Each structure stands twice: as C-alpha cells, then as structure tokens.
Amino acid sequence: MSFQYMPLPGDQEGSIRLINLLPKKDHPKSCEDCDNGPNIPPPPARVHCTLSVAKLEDPPPYAALSYTWGTSDRKSTIMVNGMPFLATENLESALYYLTPQDQALVLWVDAICIDQNSEGERPQQLQQMRQIYSRATSVTAWLGPPRDNSDIALGWIQYYGSLADSLGIGTKPDLKLLSLLQSLSLSPAKLPENSRLKTFLKEISNEVTSDTGQAESIRVSLAKLFDRPYWSRVWAVQEMAHSKSVRFACGDKSVSDDALHHALGLVKSLRQFQKQRQGDYVQRATVKSIEFPTNTRNAISLMKVQRATEPLPLIYLLRTFRFFKASDPRDRLLALLGFASDADSLGLSSDFRDKSYEELYCDVIVGLITSGFFDVLSLCDLDIRIQGYPSWTPDFTRMRTRVPLQQRALDRRSSPVKASLQPKFSASGKRKIGNKGCPVPVSSGSHLVLHAKLIDAVDRVGTQWKAGYSRRWLEELTELYLPDGAKSRGPLPPGCLHAVLRTAVADQEGWRAAVKPRLSESMVVKLQEVLEKSDSCSDATTLSSFGLDDYVDQLQDIAKHRCPFRTSTGRIGIGPHQMNHGDRIYVLAGAPVPYVMREGTDRKLRLIGEVYLYGIMDGEGLSNVKSLEKIKLY
Questions:
Q1: How far does Cα 573 stand from its chain's mean position?
Q2: Phi and psi at residue 61, to the nearest 5°
Q3: Domain boundaries, the chain
Q4: Fewest CB within a 10 Å sphere: which of 26, 140, 146, 544?
Q5: Contact 52/17 with Cβ under 8 angstroms?
Q6: Strand, coil or helix: what is 321?
Q7: C-alpha to C-alpha distance for 241 and 351, rounded to whole angstroms
Q8: Which residues face 613 on adjacent strands?
Q9: pTM of this prediction?
Q10: Interatomic CA distance for residues 340 and 106, integer angstroms
C-alpha cells in the first residue's frame, strides 16, 4: 500500500503541509512493517519522513527546497509516514543528502507537500508560493548529486568568494579585480599595501595563467557546475526572489549566496583578464590558450534577483530569463509574473491557468506593447514563432540567441525599480506613447494598430554572419556603402569607414558599470588608425592584439543571426538574417529602434525584426514629419 494524502483543512487557503526529515540515527532498520503485498519485499529507502499540516500565517521554523524535478519516469522510493512514496530520483537524492545525522529537519517540498493529483489543491497551493518561500527561514537550492569534481568547484566558490567579500573586491571603486590584476602584471608597486590582498591576487591570477592540471581542473569543474539544469529552471527565479537567504548544495557540500555572488564576479573578471592577456601575447605562439568558464550568465541573473530588495519590471524579467525552461510552457511566464512589480498595471494580474500558453503569450505581449515596451519585439523571430499566431508574438518555448540591439539596465535607486534601455537610441525622436500625435497601440484580434512612418525599403542584403567572419563583415558593409557596390581600390569616401565601424557593432560598446554607451569617437579614431596600417588588421584576433577586444566582442555578439543590408536610398544597416529585397523599414511611434516588416501575398504586414540603420537612430527620420500613418501589424 502506498502513501495516501489526507485533505487539507477546509480553510486550506491558509494551510500547508511540511515534512519532517527523520535523522539517520532514527531510520528503521527495515521496512518489514510496510504492507507491500504478499511475497513482495519492501523497496530499500534511504529517506524517511513524516508529514504534518501547519498554518502558513504562523508556521514552525522550516526551510524550503528549490530544485529541478528531474525525469518523471525515473522514480525512487522514499518513506512518508511509514508508507512508500515515489519521488523523482533528483528529489530523493536531495532529501538523502540533506538528511541530518542527529536531529529532524523541517522542510517544504512542493512534490510532497502538495497533492499533485488534486486538481483543486494544486493551483491553490501554487498561488501561495510567494508566502511559502518568503516565510521560510532559509532556502536550499539543490544543484544535484556530486559529480564532475563538484566538490572542487564548491570549495573554490566558498573560499575565494568569501575572501573577495571580506577584502571588498568588486564593492569598492579602487578594488576592481580586473584593474588589480593588470597592476599585478604590469606595475605591482601600484597595488595597495595589503599583504592579504596581494596574496589573494597572486593565488587567483594563477587560475588564469597556469596550465597545470590543478588549475585546469578548477576551471573545468566550475564550467560543469554551471552547466547543471538548475541554473535554467524558471521557477527558481521566483523562489530566489522571495527567499531570505540561500545555500546552494551539491551532494554534502554547500556554499552561501554571498560567496556565490562574489565568486561569480571573480569568474567574470578572470575571464576578461584572460582575454586581455591572450590579446597582448597573441603573436607569440608559445602562449597556450586556457579557457575560463563562460557559462555563468544564468547564475548571475538568478543572483541579481535573489539580492534585489523589491520586485522587478516584467520586461526586464522576460528578457533576462528568456532562455530558462519549464515543463509547462505557461510557467515560463507565470513564474515571472509572480515577481513582476508591474503585473497589475499591465493588466496581467488575473489567473491565466485556464488559458493555453499561446493565449497567455499574446496577452502578455499586448500588455507590454500597449504600455510602450516595444523592445519585447526584439524577441520575435521569423523562423521561431507559434504556428498561426501573430508575427509580433514571440514563442517563449524556443528562443534564439540573437542579442537584442538594446539591453535593459536596472536603476536600483528608483522606487519601484526601473529598467532603462541601453544604449540610448531614439529613432522616433521625442514622440512618447500617449502624447499628442503618438497614440497608444491598440490590439484588435490578431493585429496591432500602430502609428508609424515608412522610412525606407531594403535594396540589397549581405551574407549572414558566421564564425570568424569579422573581416568579411566589415568588407561587405563597405561594399554596401559604396554607390556602385564595388570594392574600392582607392581611398574610401569621407565618412564611409566611420559609418561602417559604427554600423558593424550597432554603434555600441561594452558595459561600463550600469551603462552601455554608444561607440565613442575616440574608439572610432583608434579603429581607423589600426585599419589603415594593414589589411590583415580587420581579423578579430589581430584587432584584439591592438587592445580592441571590446569592439571585437561587441561585433561578434551583435552580428549573430544578422546580416548587413543597404536601403533604396543608400543607407546601410544590420538586421535579421531573414531580410529580403523589398522589405519595408518603419519607425514606430514611441519605439527607440526601427523595425523591418514584410507585406505578404495577402497584403498583410508582418514583423521580421528590429534593425540598426545608420543615420536615423536619433530621430532623424521623423525630424520633419508632422503626422504618422496608421498601420496594422499581423
């Protein structure tokens, strides 16, 4: 006989179940008393617990578990109230490693504390997730069982993360790790007189410069750790957001949230320092390229939410966690709506459980666009969209890695917290949604009614970006800029190289703290000087050797899944690789960047994607336009 749930009290809205993990010393020697049927031996169980009911408004101290369910068809038996209960292997493993030796541990675990087969109980209990995690004394984030030298990775995180925290690395203006490592390498005398700091810098720089087996083992184990499924689980966002404190556990090892936060900052800086060092010595064949982990994006995003003092805007959450996963497609948005600061104002506060994921996605996109958050359109992709749904509704079950032209930067000084677009573009000029002459977009069935200006049409399309294409990317943009489209044998026309260099990277540099600036004139001048020295300098590796890593990084990021193009009036730009001759480029009222659209055989206009078009990103295309036309986007 297996475990059977007893219904929660009639006022189940305020009731939850909690499990008491029995300490190992109190585990029964066998399960002979379990009634599993005649001649059937009881399954061996490593986990024993009891289940009790508590009032959520005044519960006993408990910890909450955050974990991935794992494969549902692979189950292990645990004992609940002396009865067999089938749990996923990952959950059974988590409970086994978390079981104390001498005293009981009180936990809330969704798969056990909620009757998953009760259609009435499950949605009601899920609505209490915020209170459940916020009232827990702590949250344990289970990364999985020990493997791939995870103990080495966790030991590195706890040691160096805690040490960086105590030294103030990354939290004080004069203690930025990248600058400190540069000083250690070039001018050690400029380092602060702090023996602990100098020892720390020497030790951690060895993780980049050394090619020993030990150093490589650390880098590989860190990469393996951040490849685990937990870091892309969308429900973890809400669980992190509502937690008081978190410990990240793997096997019988764990690290604090503070140590992980600071260790992630170290990994990011070490990766940058490694790239600079490789660029400085790129012409020396004796230097061995040793990669430092690059897969920490999801972990960094989770820690930002965990350390946020208040809820964040939905547009920021959607863009930041667009690659996170969930077994139910609706949960990709529902998990974020539970922590969004503006869900009510966007008209998205109602229960969406009765809607299909396609309907939910449409409702969310309409709420965002009609509120002026046009950048959600940057997530749309012609090749990856819901069959039969509007072109302006992205499919969150499949997200391409094309980087949006603008990023969302949090302004934590504002209340509520706002997320501004970086770098600053204003293709529609001073027109703001809701102002005179700039009406709010209207949704009507399958189409959006927008006010826009047709700026230009696509005349020629270049080659889609591919790895190692830096030199050809610049050459094609130059050819598209030239009137006849031919390669130039003499000096380039005035302004050509300037336009090409800005267009190639969508006129932007890397992050500078909380700001992502437009490409500076000094960087353009330096690039021009380098490119004039040798034709081979347009190669990405060689550009890096001249200290232009930032430009190369931006080019490689922004160009993926894009192609260069030229318009009928001779402008150059970069946009989605699906662009064709004859596609139309519009500036939407209130939108910061232009969009390319296509009229189908049914005469309906559909979105292809956002574009960077040199010369109209600051309102030039609408400078003398008094009125806009009304368009329908299907």
A1: 26
A2: -55, 130
A3: 12-136, 150-234+259-303, 322-408, 425-462+562-634, 465-560
A4: 26
A5: yes
A6: coil
A7: 20
A8: 573
A9: 0.89
A10: 29
